[in-house]
Design goal:
The chain is an alpha/beta fold and 259 residues long. The strands form two sheets. Strands 3-2-1-4-5-6-9 form a seven-stranded parallel β-sheet, sandwiched between helices.
């Protein structure tokens, strides 16, 4: 009997993650939802199994902990889940001058945004290559394309995600496996609250997208095998401009927007 294909979504308990999960369940994928809030995970499990004819596994896991990605992979193996789609969505940011920031929060940000993403990709990529089938969606950001004063570590982690995804996409040519970096602009997800962006001009000065629309766009581009996906015409124009404008101008422009 052929195993049902599963989609794994990290950071699944809200914002983009919950919308990714909903769209994937609607498309007929069983789900493995990973997040820190067990109560919210159980709520989503009940919701999706009520609405769609799919199985939903949940795993409460803090991806800032060393080895968390390997533990997620072990859970999938123990439950004999064939992860066909991996959505590395978990991530968070912080606002403020680096010198006065919470050092533990910066460390955890690198662990979640970069290290856990790498670990999960490495673990689930090998079985995908063996099957010659699979798709990986790494949630980056428009922040990937420029430095970000007052959110320096966050912008740096997202630049890492984009660079890694682009390089990996070349390595995966002809394997049957694709990887996509989704690079949204400001999106109403709860991220802005967790990142202490209430005092930032980022969400005041740029248009804010709906999480549902961004998730749909990202999965559409994932199906198409696109390497870089930037939702929104205005956002794509900004990205193009950042590629040709002097670096000094760009970093000062970002600072003026955010302060």
């Amino acid at each position: 009997m052929k195993k049902q294909k599963t989609a794994l979504v990290t950071g699944a308990t809200g914002g983009l993650g919950a919308h990714f999960a909903n769209e994937l369940a609607k498309a007929g994928y069983d789900l493995l939802l990973v997040g820190r809030n067990e109560e919210k995970l159980e709520h989503l499990q009940h919701l999706f199994t009520t609405i769609y004819p799919v199985q939903v596994h949940t795993l409460q896991k803090d991806l800032s902990e060393p080895g968390a990605g390997k533990e997620v992979f072990a859970f999938a193996q123990e439950n004999e889940l064939t992860v066909e789609v991996l959505v590395n969505n978990a991530g968070f940011g912080d606002f403020g001058a680096f010198a006065f920031s919470d050092w533990k929060k910066q460390q955890d940000m690198v662990m979640v945004n970069c290290t856990a993403l790498l670990e999960l990709t490495r673990c689930f990529l090998l079985p995908m290559l063996t099957r010659r089938s699979g798709k990986i969606l790494n949630v980056a950001s428009m922040a990937s394309f420029q430095p970000g004063p007052l959110m320096s570590v966050y912008y740096a982690t997202k630049a890492f995600v984009l660079s890694f995804t682009e390089a990996l996409s070349v390595e995966l040519r002809g394997t049957g496996v694709t990887v996509t970096a989704l690079c949204p602009g400001p999106t109403k997800t709860g991220f802005e609250k967790n990142a202490a962006l209430g005092s930032s001009g980022l969400f005041r000065n740029l248009g804010v997208a709906k999480a549902k629309d961004v998730a749909k766009y990202g999965l559409k581009k994932l199906r198409q095998g696109k390497v870089i996906a930037v939702p929104g015409c205005k956002n794509r124009m900004i990205v193009r401009a950042c590629k040709v404008l002097p670096r000094g101008f760009v970093r000062n422009m970002v600072y003026e927007i955010q302060k």
